[in-house]
Amino acid sequence: MTIQKVYDLIDARREQYLETLFTLLRQKSISTQKIGIEECANLLKGMMEEAGIHTKIIETEGHSVVYGEIIKDPNAFTLLLYGHYDVQPPDPIDEWISPPFIPIIRDNKIFARGSSDNKGQLMAHVLAIKTYLDVYGELPINVKFVFEGEEEQGSINLESFVSDNRELLKADLVYTSDGPSHQSGAPLIILGVRGLLYVELKATGANIDNHSGNKGNVVPNPVWKLFELLRTMRDEKGEILIEGFYDNVREPSNYEKELIKKLPFNREEVGKQIGYPSLDLDGETFYRKLTMEPTFNIAGIQSGYNGEGMKTIIPSTATLKMDIRLVVDQTPEEIFGKLCNHVKKHAPDIEVTKLGMFHPSRTLADLELINIIKNALEEVSGREAIIQPSMGGSLPDYVWTKILKAPSIIVPYANYDQANHSPNENLDVDYFFNGIKYTCSVINRLADQVNKGRMVATNQVNK
Asked: What is the CA radius of gyration of the chain?
């Protein structure tokens, strides 16, 4: 038998596989509102068992993890597939063209909440296993599955779950399908994520709001306190002035720099897509800033009166929220400490609170595993795959690279314009079926290299 027989069976089952996905999409699973989570976990467990996967639900301090496995041989190569079955709230409902939990196909796209983020992408893995087993009767490698129910809440219990289950989850490669593909449509391999430190800074003036005329020049304005502090943190060129902020930033390797240079980039198109047509960066600079450099972003400021018309006051409090994206080898704890020291030095009466964090993560770009995955994707797509050393955003990728000590890659199966987290979230039908084929091809290629003795030693991952 050849892998083409697997692809042919996938094509023959298009209607069946679409209906399977639709069944999962109809089941609400809004983690932040605790709606339908348990029901969705049980539904997914049944679907995985029907596909031939040994599955169990493992409880956490929050929502359960749906864990599955097919073990060919305890000593065989092991691939761990990660995804999440929880979804974002559908609001605002009135902006949806069709109901968010009644999937429908328009213009060859599946419209529903969770269609691309992440039920469609995780279901591609499940259906790939089902198809492979139906054709071959067994898998050539071990495959494990971790589908969590809290990703849309920041994966708040995933770290403890992985820490508590290291032996159960032991794998040679972690493979995640989440997020959008590259805007060019070429298959995309992402080798890491930026970390995140989310903080709140609160300045206080008087105990109450005061009349800006009667008490002007007498009562301090906390907004100015924040502004004056911010001026000490960043210069006019955008460099961060907090002592030691850049100390542990790892410079990209020469190979990573070459990968960045190869990434497709259309300045006009990107500028239009992000609503900033005056974007003035070349592709290399764009991707370097997006993936290899930390950020220091003001996410929001709240103070005083912002309603219609006038209200002349000196506000009593001002609150600033910041998200700081980090790159390896920075840590959220380190940067939070340095931020607090800076505030203590320049504005000791301003209160700093840590609201959330993710560690950055990056897998070595020159692992043989990466080329194997690249060839597998190209076999299906007929296009050269793009390798991106890191994404700009943050995912809990560090639980695999730092706790499980396994290399980890992200291969998005969704279309670039998926509108995840927004009304009219969608998944291109062809992307869905290509995703099923991608997973089959990856399994086949990994097994082929293991059998030929060409696989590089496992667990080669950046610390």
From this structure: 24
